[in-house]
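[Meeting: bench + compute handoff]

Bench side (C.D.) handed over the final construct sequence. Compute side (W.E.) agreed to return the predicted structure before the next meeting so the bench team could plan truncations. Sequence as handed over:
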Amino acid sequence: LVQLEEECYEYHSSMMRCWEELIQCNADILSHFNSAIRDHDCSMSAKTCPASILPQKPLFSDFKDHMML
């Protein structure tokens, strides 16, 4: 029983470290994207702004059609 508790504790500690690293990674990515968007917004004029940020044709329409077959 003691060995089982030790294994459970080690597993829990390992999983907590992994989740903390994942959360930190996500925070770093978010910070990078926020900085890139801020820099882009500051250097962009209204004349060069795209009419839409979404593509005219859905990106996964072909994939969806193949899945229906």
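W.E. noted at the follow-up: The chain is about 70% helix and 0% strand. C.D. will use this when planning the next construct.
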